Amino acid sequence: xxxxxxxxxxxxxxxxxxxxxxxxxxxxxxxxxxxxxxxxxxxxxxxxxxxxxxxxxxxxxxxxxxxxxxxxxxxxxxxxxxxxxxxxxxxxxxxxxxxxxxxxxxxxxxxxxxxxxxxxxxxxxxxxxxxxxxxxxxxxxxxxxxxxxxxxxxxxxxxxxxxxxxxxxxxxxxxxxxxxxxxx
Length: 184
Fold this sequence. Notes:
By secondary structure, the protein is an alpha+beta fold. The protein is globular, with a radius of gyration of 17 Å. It contains 7 helices and 5 strands; from the N terminus they run H-H-E-E-E-H-E-E-H-H-H-H. Helix content is 46%, strand content 14%.
């Protein structure tokens, strides 16, 4: 991904911020500059409305600096803001003919971009969806030994069973299978 181009930089920002925050694609697409609270140790993102918050009370999600310069979501966002400017409006916008628009990207646009980027990276885009980064966050955190409660606090899952059944258990099944003991 050429992160010196507007498209590459925007796509990298979306991927890094979404993976780090575990926001739903609709929440990510709805972010505006006013929803950012940049702090010395990271970033607070306010998701103003979501699938589980139809009343619009809002949820604050934290993102800290990455350990590596190339994958630090906060650093990527700072570069993006320098390019975008600090004019109020949508954080992530559509691009047309290589130029930034003032139109917010839509959740479906994020899903299409992820499929394009997966294909360009040599991965099968068949199983990539707009939900993949959120799911990947939960899965990677579980593999790293993060508690289910801490993962649920980040992903804002109301029901731990959803998190367990759809994200964590499939990994657990591979770690606890006896199929490797069958002598096949």
